[in-house]
Amino acid sequence: MGKLGKKRVLLKIGTNALTKETDQISRGKIEDIGRQISALKDDYEFIIVSSGAIAVAKQFVKLEGNGKEINVKQALAAIGQPHLMRIFHDNFWELGLLTSQCLLSYADFEREISRQNIMNTINVLLENNYIPIINENDTVATDEIKFGDNDKLAALTGCLLNVDLVIIATNTDGIYTKVSMNENKQKTIQLVEDIDKLQSEISTDKSSRGTGGMQSKIDAARILKNNNIETWIVNGIDDGFIQKAINNEITFTKILNKN
Ligand SMILES: Nc1ncnc2c1ncn2[C@@H]1O[C@H](COP(=O)(O)OP(=O)(O)O)[C@@H](O)[C@H]1O
Ligand SMILES: N[C@@H](CCC(=O)OP(=O)(O)O)C(=O)O
């Protein structure tokens, strides 16, 4: 629970949703997220885990190499991250929202002192109405750009900060049944009580831009469920997707925190 009894929500936004499946970060999508946060701010408090640093950098530079080597991706992330934050800042500022940046790596969650520092920093930011925008510190850790584990970073952060809900925004209407995917007639699994039954529905498909595919989202949801936190997997390309999910106006996957 956030300050003044507000519901604390962690929004993880993947590269696919941020680019609206193009090769460019969508300023319109970032504005759409800001508008929703602004409309919901009396009842909800948001923490954002945002991918997109590498995608932004690719708009500006071409580094030597084929762009797939890990060290080249790390350099692209270092170039893109300040631009990503500038785009968040500019769009959110117009809406009266304040932004801040936290770069974290998994190892930080294993050291008690670092865990405490992350908690202290983010809690002070939230108390002062600064929206924390988190990404992995790709200079010191490569897990996420190898495996797409911004999803896991979102789960670890959600648990540490005791959020009420995690929304993972991607480019599908949640998790589809495997049969429906094979037949190209996508059908969403809307409610999941037993997360173990989901495993058989996952294909190893990944979109051309994202890294983790659905597996890393389910792994994240499992960590969250073990900590009694609900996860929603939502299509972030839709305008107003957070509000529409809250009002049950779109189809998405809800992974309950209890069996
Ligand atoms: N059962 C499933 N339902 C929906 N998507 C799936 C499923 N199995 C694999 N996928 C793939 O997972 C992709 C989303 O993950 P990813 O590409 O890593 O996106 P993001 O950038 O949002 O993290 C989908 O575009 C799809 O190709
Ligand atoms: N830290 C990287 C994130 C890469 C990543 O995991 O992307 P995604 O699978 O879209 O969540 C970046 O900002 O580009």
Task: Characterise the protein shown here.
This protein has one domain: Carbamate kinase (3-Layer(aba) Sandwich). It is 44% helix and 17% strand. The chain has eleven helices and eight strands. The protein has helices spanning 15-19, 27-40, 53-60, 70-94, 106-110, 112-127, 143-147, 150-160, 178-182, 213-226, 241-246; strands spanning 7-13, 44-50, 98-104, 130-136, 165-170, 191-192, 230-235, 253-255. An eight-stranded mixed β-sheet has the order 3-4-2-1-5-7-8-6, with helices on both faces. The mean pLDDT is 91. The structure holds adenosine-5'-diphosphate and ligand VHF. Adenosine-5'-diphosphate is lined by residues 14-17, 148, 170-172, 175-176, 181, 201-203, 205-207, 209-214.
What is the CATH third-level topology name? Carbamate kinase
Question: How many individual domains?
Answer: 1
Main sheet specs: 8 strands, mixed
CATH class: Alpha Beta
Order of strands, main sheet, comes to 3-4-2-1-5-7-8-6
The kinds of small molecule bound in this structure are: adenosine-5'-diphosphate, the ligand N[C@@H](CCC(=O)OP(=O)(O)O)C(=O)O
The SSE order reads EHHEHHEHHEHHEHEHEHE
Give Rg in angstroms.
Answer: 17 Å
**Shape estimate:** globular
| Structural class label | alpha/beta
Low-pLDDT stretches: none
Number of helical regions? 11
Mean pLDDT: 91
Binding site for ATP: 12, 211-217
Protein name: Glutamate 5-kinase
EC number: 2.7.2.11
Catalytic activity: L-glutamate + ATP = L-glutamyl 5-phosphate + ADP
